Amino acid sequence: MKILAINSSPRGGGQSKTELMLNHLVEGMRDAGAEVDVVNLREKKIKNCIGCFTCWTKTPGHCIHKDDMTRELFPKWLEADLVVYATPLYNYAMTASLKAFIERTLPSLEPFFEIHAGRMCHPLRHRSPAVVILSVSGMPDEAHFGPLSAHMKYSFATLGRKLSAEIYRPAAEILTNPLFKKKADDVLEAVAEAGRELAKSMTISPGTMARITQPLVDSQLFAEMGNLFWKTCIAEGVSPKEFEKKNMVPRPDSLESFMLLFPAGLNSGAAGDRKVTLQFDFSGHVEDSCCFIIEKGKVEAKKGIEENPEITIKTPFNVWMDIMTRKADGQQMFMEQKYTVTGDIGLMIQLFKKEGY
Hints:
It is a single chain. The chain is of the alpha/beta class. It contains twelve helices and twelve strands. The strands form three sheets. The chain has a five-stranded parallel β-sheet with strand order 2-1-3-6-7, sandwiched between helices. The longest helix is centred in the middle third of the chain and has 21 residues, at 181-201. The radius of gyration is 26 Å and the shape is elongated. The model has no long low-confidence stretch (mean pLDDT 93).
């Protein structure tokens, strides 16, 4: 089987979750023996269709534009058995570059009118490849894909066209968040399995699709995490790309947000077979306490004070937030007695090795 995979994400360099999903889909397709050609539209020059209909009259089947679409991509599209349209969700729809690509497949149609299943349509000039749409969204709600799905279903319901599968992944930014690694890995493994199934049968099984679309995060939790991220970007004057490049950390602004984010930076394996309690007593503008119970590689956050913790850290809230977000060196702050530690300091060092607190 010959497959053409069209990646319309403008982002590269490991930032694109569209690309991440597509890479796993392609990996599965190739595992199943398919010949897959991946095209990144951000690297191509494709002019907009100008509606001249030259491809229907003066040069039937051939576009008036002489660009990458005419010379390279349209011939590949015609030869493919299956085409994957991969796009981040932009304003509840596909990217402009993918829309331009699809519009430029107009030469594959003839100008005449036919009625198919009660609907007027143009007949195909060439065999049309089957289609898979793959899209990701930062929002956690699958309903955001409704307009895109409706568009794809309507567009490929005409004579000779086939929409083989729709793959939609909400809350896609979480796929690279270490807090959700186990679920994210299962999603990506399922995407690869979907690729194998598509290469063999042009369909995706319900079980595989359920794994791909499984819930990753509670909406309220998602909102809190996202808001902290954007607040930090705004406060520091950085873009998301710069945030990632600088290996920055969202800055908690409350005890609750600290309890939410702090476990991601802990080396929970350092506890071994022990049950370890790490206690924080904060002062300053946040005067409160919380603890983290580490057992069997898992971390449970609890508000309040636990009896007989292995480690207790007493610190002004802002001091620890500076340390957590790498604005201050934790060891230097300790030497300057900006915070105090009682209990197993050696274990604390091991627990904090992951992020270098």
